[in-house]
Amino acid sequence: MEINGQTVRESARYDEMGLSPELLRAIGEKGYVSATAVQTGAIPYFMDWKDVIAKAPTGTGKTFAFGIPMVEHIDPQDDSVQALVLAPTRELAIQIQDELRDLCTFKEGVRVVCLYGGQPIDKQITQLKKRPQIVVATPGRLMDHMKRRTVRLDKVQTVVLDEADRMLDMGFVRDVTHILDKMPQRRNLGMFSATISREVLDISWVYQRDPVEITVQADQDNRPDIAQYRLDVERNEKADTMARLLEMGGYERVIAFCNTKNMTDRLSGLLSMRGISCQAIHGDIQQSAREKTLQKFRDGKLRVLVATDVAARGLDIDDVDAVFNYDVPDENEYYIHRIGRTGRAKRHGVAFSLVSTITEGLRLDDIQKNTGSDIRTVYFNEKGDLVAAART
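The structure assignment produced for this chain is given below.
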């Protein structure tokens, strides 16, 4: 890990960080003893109210990196909004809310609320009337509340942009800058991201003061253990091939990614016809229905979750057996975030990419070249076994 360009140690125990007994107890309840690299780097600076810009791979504990100092700074006697976390998707916002609430378990009087589109706004207004000190929100829904004057941000001291690159890429730049301009008492701003884009640097230049730059590289300690495979198949054979691989591997929890909403619905139907329990989630499905589907998947009642890239980030699902790229993704980063759903918490994971056109093949070649991924080409031999092709 590097901090401001200097290599530093990547691990520390939580009980070495000067945290309160309440936070240490909450962290201990989750079974954690040592902080991850990004947490080791960010927590001390956040505790000192420094601005932070952190680049770290997906799944390295970024939420606790800002959540622990955020909760420590909250004054339970003050019922104004003191901290704000902005997230690009409702799924990620909900996940952050859940993790922050876990950290608040023994901090009496600290309340967290989550604001996102797709949920009735009246319900959120009722929650805001309980005077939460921490707000987690997607930019669009937060703007709705600001226009209605149902939330006040003038007392906010800490702001975090989580998955900042994704949020700004999704066109939220104007909303984010408008929100940041409404917080005159802001003391520090944290930006956490898997990549640092031009837009992230622009926001940093305008709104951060001498930020501490933390970079955690994807090395052998934090790089997920994921075996990555490519299968070249005919388009009309993709569903059968996927069903065959599910059976051969005995995978019980799988996420399959498609590039379009229509294809997720179609694949879900094709797999269901083959006796595989499966449902789709995408942006056109009501939030309540999506949450029910996700809960069924977490509970083991669904074997396959079919999703668009809206689900590639922020899902609180960390023990997926395998990921299928039913469609090769359009962006290199989508590939990284898709396969990052498996191989987490030091488990072994598997990712299959099904290639049926020359265009898909060229896209996957480009992904392999530009992401440094080791994607092995495999095929079914005459006996029906899955074997690796010779490397060229």
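Interim note for the steering committee: The chain has two domains: 2-215, 225-388. The CA atoms of residues 42 and 65 lie 6 Å apart.
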